[in-house]
Amino acid sequence: MKKLYFILLFITTIVKGQQADILIKNGKIVDGTGNSWLYGDIAVTDGKIMAIGHLENWKATKTIDATGLIVAPGFIDVHTHIENQEKKDPEAKSFIYDGVTTVITGNCGDSHTNIKKYFSFLDSLKTSINVGSFIGHNDVRKAVMGTSNRTPTEAEMQQMEGIVEQAMKDGAVGFSTGLIYIPGTYSKTPEVVRLAKAAAKYHGVYASHIRNEADSVVAAINEALNIGREAHMPVEVSHFKLVGEQNWGRSKETLPLIIKAREEGIDATIDQYPYTASSTTITTMLPSWALADGQDSIKARLQNENSRKRIIAFGIKTLKKRSLEHFSYAVVANYKADTSYNGKSIEEVNQMIGHPHTAEEEMKTVMDIVINGGSSMVFHGMCEEDVQNIMKYPFNMFASDGGIRVIGESVPHPRSYGTNARVLGKYVRELKIIPLEEAIRRMTSLPAQKFQLKNMGLLREGYNADIVLFDEKTVSDIATYDKPHQYSVGFKYVIINGKLTVEDGKHNGTRSGRTIRKG
Fold it and tell me: Which is the most buried residue in 190, 223, 245, 503, by most CB within 10 A?
């Protein structure tokens, strides 16, 4: 079929007299391999890259003068959470303006369990970006067991295996876990191994938000690697980091675990967002035992005097480990019950509502927020030294861990707007932590190879025409923690599946993305 396709391309070229849909001229081409840039032109026809080189005699419906611009493959964000956000902005501008043309969602164990139905929804909606998905452990477990804190029965295990296998047949790229979240945190390693094996039958990737990213991070990384080893499948350790002041500098201890695994023959890679703050739900501030068996049970525990004392003690212990006196590191991103909390730390919220300025009272405020529906949070807890050290590792991809954002809605982590621009602007251009060509390899061909995304991730003849053009001298992230709703700058043109989507820095409304079905 591939040979026939190129024959047809050749015939079309003759008939049209070297006519393209889009012709990119005079660009500084960085092809995604990690090789040095070169000057040249690119012709795009029928959604594919038709020719690369010096194309003086070519004509096109649309010609782009790329003088002074980098021309690269569209960026692939392998760790996103876009579920239930797609309708808010099908144009996915927070991703598009950051150079992202493809996302993988369903991470951290959270996904749709009916992948076929989800992909059909996306096909009908028509987003601007390409979308692939994992099948997530947490939602599989909820579908069979709810949020019970127990080991599954054999019948339940077989049900869960069946859901995972069907999702893989329907095109999921692999199996993801969020072992810090409910109900994944209640699972034991053998359960995860069995479900990973169900995905491994279809050559899927095992991606994990590991069980602990703080004091027990080494054991948690080793668990993920062991799951990959036993299931005989590639491993992706999600948003690789060290949380808590007491763990700063330990990337020198954790990165060698990945290096050793690769030396043993395990296809182990990691991904990273270039920030010193994370973002997740406020429930992670509570012990997992308090969150089992549904909202009514959670509410009852959080209103029980003895349980509240235990939870407060848990929170105080966390602070002492970090040598902190208050929960100033935990900032509310989106609290629907009272949006005046948004953008304020738990310490600030506690004072705003008139409670005593103590850590004990701040934990009570946390519990009250959970009782009233919970909130998303931004947690400041990593150090810049680790961020840079992890960034230097060659088998590390850049991933936002973000979603589709709508301007003005809540106070989210800025990573949903600026991950790639931040890498290219701050860490490549300003700090020179890694070269430009290497950064682009990590954003393109490395993720395409890892997740077996055929004909993606490189600028090659016959490959999908997902292409970004940006100014390496001005590309920058503008989004900040205080003012996150700001699009990145510097991306002048974005082409997705051969369709011009961003022109002269402006999204033109084109929605030519497609679902990425493995196999």
Answer: 223
What is the residue-averaged pLDDT of the chain?
96
Domains and CATH numbers, the chain: 74-276+381-448 (3.20.20.140), 281-380 (no CATH)
Contact 55, 43 (CB under 8 A): yes
Residues 6+ apart with CB under 8 A from 189: 223, 226, 227
Question: Is there a contact between 447 and 75 (Cβ–Cβ < 8 Å)?
Answer: no
Reference 515, options 17, 192, 82; nearest CA is: 82
**What pLDDT shows up at residue 17?**
55
- Kindly tell me the burial class for residue 163, based on how many C-beta atoms sit within 10 Å of its own C-beta (0-12, 13-18, 19 or more): buried
Neighbours of 117 (CB within 10 A): 11
H or E element, residue 195: helix 189-200
The secondary element (H helix, E strand) that includes residue 495 is strand 491-496
Percent helix, strand, coil in the chain, to 5, is 40, 20, 40
Q: What is the C-alpha to C-alpha distance for residues 518 and 156, in angstroms, rounded to an integer?
A: 26
Question: Model confidence over 309-323: pLDDT tens digits?
Answer: 999 999 999 999 999
d(CA 456, CA 467): 10
Alpha-carbon dihedral sign for residues 193, 195, 197, 203 = negative
The strands making up 277-281's β-sheet, listed across from edge to edge, are: 277-281, 376-380, 330-334
Phi, psi of 132 (to 5 degrees): -120, 170
pLDDT, tens only, 180-196: 999 999 999 999 999 99
What gap in Å lies between CA 68 and CA 73, rounded to an integer?
17
* 219-226, Cβ contacts within 8 angstroms, sequence gap of 24 or more: 220/179, 221/254, 221/257, 221/258, 222/257, 223/179, 223/189, 225/257, 225/258, 225/261, 225/266, 225/268, 226/189
Token pair belonging to 248: 């700063």
Contact in structure between 490 and 96 (CB atoms under 8 Å) = no
- Report the DSSP beta bridge partners of residue 135: 175
